[in-house]
Design brief:
Helices cover about 35% and strands about 25% of the residues. The protein is of the alpha/beta class.
Amino acid sequence: MKRIAITQRLIENTSYFEIRDCLDTNWTNLFKKLSIVPIILPTNYPIENFIDNGITIDGLILSGGNDLNNFNPNNLSEIRDKYELKLIDFFVQNKITI
């Protein structure tokens, strides 16, 4: 089975301050259908920590959600954009499919 990393959308809880990573449950159906083991990436957890702990990753999905910060500047988009840019650099340097 392939192990595919996937990013998550950031959402701010409005009833009390908390920023959450979240992923639409429809992704689970796709993973099952394609026999993929998902590696869910928390936005504040460096990709190197997965690799350093012996987790092999065969690819990356940038799941969408949140706007690109250039088009709708806000804190959550900026956080996600910076994280995903680091991921892209890592996956390109290590020749892992995005």
